[in-house]
Specification:
alpha/beta; Aspartate Aminotransferase, domain 2; Aspartate Aminotransferase, domain 1; binds pyridoxal-5'-phosphate; 12 helices; 13 strands; four-stranded antiparallel sheet
């Protein structure tokens, strides 16, 4: 193993493309460059056929029909299209929307802009593990509620929501249900019918596909969902999303998604074993380390830990030379924006500021994990040896910061 290698443990931010995905995309950059809308000649027909095959493949991965898949530039656009598009279409039916406090910015900011247009938004709190309460959800539903938008799995702590139960409640009450599945897709089984999902946002680069490529599942019957398009133009994608289709991206997304679904059982087990090995070793060798997120209902590759008595910026900086990880809090993010997810699960400011999110994936090896353990343990020990607070706590038995 090359000890100088920067170990990539940030698979929730993005994943590397699978080489098989690149291979599937390649012909559509070069020889088969046609515009999928130019069906008068073979170039266009070949591109069109590739797009339709991909649409069917992606639909199959979530138990949907091909005509229920709309291609977008990513989950951010899918979230905007589904939330704003649905709200604008059904505003006369009601102007109340339910979501949660730990949604991705793409959802929260779409909701904020709807608030300015007169919609009322209720954000559900989450428990200490990051899950919403079904009882509370039932209580806050109003006659004018038109949409429930709850993410399938959270990007910071990996907690998976009780999606089928939420879908049940939504369907019983005649409310549309959108879920941002950017982190969950390809990692855990998803079926839009079993889970009674009406809209689902997907992002290719979170499951070993290309960046800038996404899709939105839109239910076509029982109930049929209609959306106000957000990007107007040539009327592509049944008028829901204009713009010439990203043919290589679409082909790559389908290849990436079907690879994930094909390998899911084996891969999630492999990733989970390495993740648990990382967690167990760190918690065995260090004290004052706390798990953020659900102990069981969590994405297999996600491990978010808070390290007590550590200067957060110092930790992420020292790790950054050897480990590509992300911080749940202010420590490393470019704009120093604190996490809103950790406070939402009851993590105090000090522990929220020393959280690290480890994101394991398909290409994470056991030797990566063994190195990561060594790096994390030695870095934390070193930083704590210089921390007067940790020293005090050892002597005086003072509580966690
Ligand atoms: C990454 C992510 C997004 C944004 O996806 P893009 O395709 O990068 O726009 C949205 N929601 C969640 C939960 C994510 O993890």
């Amino acid at each position: 193993m090359n000890s100088k290698k920067l170990i990539y443990l940030d698979n929730h931010a993005t994943t590397p493309m699978d080489p098989l995905v690149l291979k599937a995309m390649e012909p559509y950059f070069l020889n088969e460059f046609g515009n999928a809308a130019s069906k008068d000649h073979a170039y266009g027909q070949v591109a069109h056929q590739a797009v339709e095959n991909a649409r069917a493949e992606i639909a199959r991965c979530i138990g949907a029909e091909p005509d229920e898949i709309v291609f977008t530039s990513g989950a951010t656009e899918s979230d905007n299209l589904s939330i704003k598009g649905l709200a604008q279409m059904y505003a006369e039916k009601g102007k109340h929307i339910i979501s949660s406090v730990i949604e991705h910015h793409a959802v929260l900011d779409s909701l904020k802009s709807l608030e300015k247009e007169g919609f009322e938004i209720t954000l559900l709190p989450v428990d200490q593990f990051g899950q919403i309460s079904i009882d509370l959800l039932k209580k806050i539903i109003r006659p004018e509620t038109i949409l429930i938008s709850i993410m399938t799995a959270n990007n910071e702590i990996g907690t998976v929501q009780p999606i089928a139960q939420i879908g049940e409640v939504a369907r019983e009450n005649g409310i549309f249900f959108h879920t941002d599945a950017a982190q969950a897709a390809g990692k855990i089984p998803l079926d839009v019918n079993e889970m009674k999902i009406d809209l689902m946002s997907l992002s290719a680069h979170k499951f070993y596909g290309p960046k800038g490529m996404g899709a939105l599942y839109v239910r076509s019957h029982s109930p049929r969902v209609r959306l106000q398009s957000q990007i107007e133009g040539g009327g592509h994608e049944s008028g829901w999303r204009s713009g010439s289709l990203n043919v290589p991206g679409i082909v790559g997304m389908a290849k990436a998604f079907s690879l994930c679904v094909e390998k899911m059982d084996q891969e999630s087990e492999q990733v989970r074993v390495l993740r648990d090995q990382l967690q167990d070793a760190i918690q065995n060798e260090l004290d004052e380390v706390y798990l953020n997120g659900h102990p069981k209902e969590r994405l297999p590759g996600c491990l978010n830990l808070s390290f007590g008595y550590i200067e957060s910026e110092a930790l992420i900086k020292s790790l950054g030379q050897k480990l590509a990880v992300s911080s749940g809090a202010a420590c490393s993010s470019a704009n120093f924006e604190p996490s809103y997810v950790l406070p939402a699960i009851g993590v105090g400011p000090d522990l929220a500021h020393c959280a690290i999110r480890f994101g394991l994936g398909r290409f994470t090896t056991e030797s990566d994990i063994l190195s990561a353990i060594e790096i994390v343990v030695s870095t934390v020990k070193h930083l704590r040896s210089e921390s007067p607070l940790y020293d005090l706590a050892l002597k005086g038995g003072a509580g966690v910061l």
